[in-house]
Design goal:
Residues 135-216 form the Acyl-CoA oxidase/dehydrogenase middle domain. Keywords: Flavoprotein, Monooxygenase, Oxidoreductase. The chain is an alpha+beta fold and 407 residues long. The protein has 13 helices and seven strands.
């Protein structure tokens, strides 16, 4: 069934349905066991493998590079659909799609060519950026040192989402002088240890735990010549979270509608002989669905701003890229509080349409709120309204980096 026929609105391009149809059978297979995997903590190794085999991980690459030439709005529309199946899987691939944008926008021709070839051949990349140690804001304790014509990595990372499922880890670190280093570390290199010790109550299957690097030898060609990320990186990574929230909202809306339709028990103080015919229950289901619809619409509108930033960067026009990137940051920041509120409300109020049996663990309805609440805790949304207000009042650009550390 197309997005339009399902009532979620048309996709972001004329060819979107054809593109999405390639992946929807995989999405359906992922969704079929998502609740059980969440309940029993089975990591989605197989599910990510299915997506790799279907070439979902090469979406942004040109066809001649093994991809589909997807625009950013098309990518984010597909991420909403994947999140509708299982938000854990989207989060596990977030770093991979971000690294792909890095490769597409890289200033080094050699780096860009090499990594687009690897990604086109099926390689995937996980996250190795965040730390929980004593490093100050803007600094890292993980160090890359020169040794015998190569490099050696030592350090410890946390929130390494997706790395357990990946071939490489995107590493942010420092050199001996405190300079920034960006590298791609093979997951199976000697000295790399990936541990699934993430114990959050939501997004539990993303393997967002610890990675340690102990004397890991690194070839020079795995060090990115320019450590800077692509210009619209902060907007991109945050919009992946918003697309994930929108997908959670859709899944919650569809589940509550199905369960109401199946429900045979009614309350004596209800309004109809069948729950499905009770206008108050219908209103609850309608509001959950409306919230999910609005969330998805906001995400896709923001994705258009990212596409403009990407297009400006491809022209090589620095001032145009700067302006387009600032506006993309503004649009995504404007979307954060709205999308978050819509989905948290939807994943809470859905229980008002059902009886006490809806809280049974086998249904897994609680995972929608738990996952949404966990995602909403990233890069705290409490700062976003202030950032947007400052832009509106003074024209101040949003910050380009969101980093955590000691003061």
């Amino acid at each position: 069934m197309s997005q339009t026929e399902a009532g979620w609105g048309a996709g972001p391009s004329a060819r979107y349905e054809t593109l999405a149809d390639r992946f929807r059978p995989v999405f359906a297979e992922i969704r079929a066991n998502a609740a059980e995997r969440d309940r029993t903590r089975i990591l989605p190794h197989a599910e990510i493998g299915w997506l790799r085999e279907a070439t979902f991980t090469t979406l942004r690459l040109a066809p001649e590079q093994g991809g589909h030439g997807a625009s950013l709005p098309e990518l984010f529309a597909l991420l909403i659909e994947l999140s509708q199946a299982d938000s854990n899987v989207t989060n596990a691939l977030r770093a991979h799609f971000g690294f792909t944008e890095d490769a597409l926008c890289a200033s080094s021709d050699a780096w860009r060519t090499a990594w687009l070839a690897r990604i086109g051949a099926g390689a995937t990349i996980g996250s190795g950026v965040s730390e929980t140690g004593p490093a100050k804001v803007g600094a890292f304790d993980t160090v890359v040192r020169r040794r015998d014509g190569g490099f050696v990595v030592d350090g410890r990372k946390f929130y390494t989402t997706g790395s357990l499922f990946a071939d490489y880890i995107h590493l942010s670190a420092e050199d001996e002088t405190g300079g920034a280093v960006t590298a791609a570390v093979p997951v199976r290199a000697p000295g790399v240890t990936v541990v699934d010790d993430w114990d959050g109550f939501g997004q539990a299957l993303t393997a967002s735990g610890t990675v340690t690097f102990e004397g890991v030898a690194l070839d020079p060609d795995l060090i990115k010549p320019d450590p800077a990320r692509f210009p619209y990186a902060m907007a991109f990574f945050q919009l992946v979270h918003l697309a994930t929230l929108a997908g959670i909202g859709r899944a919650a809306a569809e589940d509550v509608a199905r369960l109401v339709a199946e429900r045979t028990r009614v309350y004596s103080h209800g309004n109809a002989g069948r729950t499905a015919e009770d206008p108050q229950i219908q209103a609850v289901v309608g509001r959950v669905r409306a919230n999910a619809y609005a969330a998805g619409t906001v995400v896709l509108k923001s994705a258009e701003a990212l596409q403009r930033a990407y297009a400006a960067h491809q022209t090589g026009d620095g001032p145009a890229t700067e302006r387009a990137t600032t506006l993309a940051d503004v649009e995504v920041n404007q979307a954060v509080s709205v999308v978050t509120d819509l989905v948290l409300q939807a994943t809470t109020s859905l229980f008002d349409a059902l009886g006490a049996s809806a809280v049974k663990s086998g249904l897994g309805l609680d995972r929608y709120w738990r996952n949404a609440r966990t995602i909403a805790s990233h890069n705290p949304r409490i700062y976003r309204d202030r950032i947007v207000g400052a832009f509106a009042i003074t024209g101040a650009s949003p910050p380009r980096q969101y980093r955590v550390g000691t003061a």
